[in-house]
Amino acid sequence: PLAGTLFPNAASTPFVPGSATVRASGGINMLDLPGGPGCGSINGMGPYDERLWNSPPAALACAWDTGRAAVLQQPIDTLTFVARGAFKLGGGHVVTAEATGSKADSAKRFSNLQLTPNTTTQQLRFPRNAESAAAYDSVFNRLVATFPTLEPQRGQPISYRWRCIECGPREITTTTETRRLFAGIDGPLFGWDYRAGIARATSESQSTLGGGYYFRGTNGTGGSDGGPGIIPALNSGRINIFLSPGQTQSAAGLAALEEGSARGTVLYGGEFTLTQLDFTTSGSVFKLPAGDVMAAVGVDLRREEYRFNGDEREVANRRVIIAAPFDDGNALLGTAERDVKAVFGEVLIPIVKDLETTLSVRRDEYDGFGGTTNPKVSLRFKALDSLLLRASYSTGFRVPTFNQLYNGISAAEYTGADVAYPRSCPGGRVDTSLPGCGAIRPIIINGGKVDLGPEEAKMAGAGFIFEPTPNISIGIDWWSIKREGTIQLLTLRTLLENVTLFPERFGTTSDGVLVIDQRWLNAGETETEGVEVSLKGGFNALGARWTAGLEGTYLIKKRSRVVASAPFGASEVGQFSFAGDLGLRWKHSANLTYKRGDWSSSFSQLYKSGYNDQVLPGVASGRVSPPDFKSKVDDYITYNLSATYTGFKGLTVTGLVKNLFDKDPPYAATYDSNFGSGSSWEPRVADPRGRAFVLNVEYRFF
């Protein structure tokens, strides 16, 4: 709905056919009207499932599969240089120098631009004029056939939301250059060994817009910004946004689009530089009956520098490019930097024969965050020649990244239809059976937060390695990690469901529009616990050496709470979550290898257990029960096969088939994003690329 058009507000939209209470304010697609060809008549599109998403006003809308439009494996060209030299000085001292560099050019391609009207900068109005009359009348006649009461408004401009197929997929090309110089020296020093080094590394990148991006062509009030753009081109009527299946855009329409192209505009660039100086020395301190007490001490000095220049165009010439991810919000004035100073010490004490302990401590001082001291203690006991027991405990510390601290703050309208007022509607979920719980479009604030604090962690582990024979090894290790004050981005759903815990994250504009602050924060705690399993075995048979192995992880516990004062939530093991890694109960990699002479081969299996899937709003509310509905995502199992030949001196040839049986990812109700991160498959678990063939040839000159 847009003022001055056929539907100036939601209340002016007609009722959904068959209903006297629900208006079609969620959109009316001509294809989905009674008697129309249907949403599926356009490749990549289908009917919007208003029941599944619990959004009855969208009953006449269509949905386009944005994930299908993404390039899952972006093209990338990489050139790498490595040089290293070592020089003996005598007396056991060795000087080492190393230089590395690389250049990578990549192109990310994803869904075509979607244009949504607003009351200021994007007042999209399809007019009825000499150029558009035929298209306008065709559309209006179809509307009147379903909604006869609209006839008196013939000639009114039509507001719309449009996916620009003719624009082609959006593309961002990025060039990244990395460089590293290192010089070091090591050798003996007063009976101990020492190692010292100095290094400087940089990573610099620049991203540029390819096709699919367009200048808006309007200023902040909707007037012309002085140049061509897609909004004035659309409002001129030269572009037919109501093409029927099989029709193509006119030459005049394509020319109007090309006039507003922003291809070649530099998005942003940045550079990260690390300068590091370190010194370590180690040796024997004194002798105990069970052996020498060994110690190591060292210092580590680092300077981290970060520069992000954002939009490089002159301020007066920064014409807005629709959906381009820059607008100078994240630019820094100058270079952000911080110094990190650390000292550490470690001592290994043989307590008795076959029992030793290692005690270590590290002190870090970060500019702007103060210091932290983190100890570690570990025990190692060889109970039998075939049995080794081990255990450890340590603490950790992580400061926010430059991006988490200094990224620019942006505010944008939420475009989904699954949010209601959280203070009056349970969980902020849309439920049209409750007064005031219809879909709203809040303003979402994103960006960095300069007052972020560090997060802390406590880690513990214990396990054993059992080798009953030289050819068999069994290892089992229990581990536990507890993090406090975790640096995270809470999902919108988490914030909506915990409005009473984060009241400072919710506000309203002077017009009463809900505002939600979704920036980084230190929130709550997480507890994770599991067991690592390692099995290895080998034997000789049929003139060859055979080995088999399995490396697996069994997750015992995964739970979290959004604030320290709140109780822990339900177990996250085997449960879908929007943020972080999924807590898969079991995953492993198993392999069988064969080696005979110059030939070797390996057959491996990758296994990831299933989990309870995301529950979509309509299912959660009980509004719909989809046929063949499965609440659990299936296990994901793939196999790889490789063969290697080393029969020529210095030459190694390896052939690999990934996903040997071309296994598709199991279906998951993951809602795709414009960047194609998932569409009916879970990107954190599965790979949708299918079978792949890899050939690697390596030759060593000396």
Protein model, in words:
- The chain is mainly beta and 702 residues long.
- The chain has a domain at 574-702.
- 6% of the residues lie in helices and 45% in strands.
- The chain has helices spanning 133-146, 230-235, 251-259, 402-406, 492-497, 617-620; strands spanning 45-47, 62-64, 76-90, 93-112, 114-115, 162-163, 169-189, 192-209, 266-288, 291-308, 336-352, 355-366, 370-384, 387-398, 410-413, 443-446, 455-469, 472-484, 487-488, 506-508, 514-517, 521-522, 525-541, 544-561, 586-596, 599-608, 611-612, 632-633, 636-645, 651-658, 692-699.
- It has a 19-stranded antiparallel beta sheet, with no helix packed on it.
- 20% of the residues are buried.
Helix-strand layout with pairing:
Blueprint: E1 45-47, E2 62-64, E3 76-90, E4 93-112, E5 114-115, H1 133-146, E6 162-163, E7 169-189, E8 192-209, H2 230-235, H3 251-259, E9 266-288, E10 291-308, E11 336-352, E12 355-366, E13 370-384, E14 387-398, H4 402-406, E15 410-413, E16 443-446, E17 455-469, E18 472-484, E19 487-488, H5 492-497, E20 506-508, E21 514-517, E22 521-522, E23 525-541, E24 544-561, E25 586-596, E26 599-608, E27 611-612, H6 617-620, E28 632-633, E29 636-645, E30 651-658, E31 692-699
Parallel strand pairs: 16-21
Antiparallel strand pairs: 1-2, 3-4, 4-7, 5-6, 7-8, 8-9, 9-10, 10-11, 11-12, 12-13, 13-14, 14-17, 15-16, 17-18, 18-23, 19-22, 20-21, 23-24, 24-25, 25-26, 26-29, 27-28, 29-30, 30-31
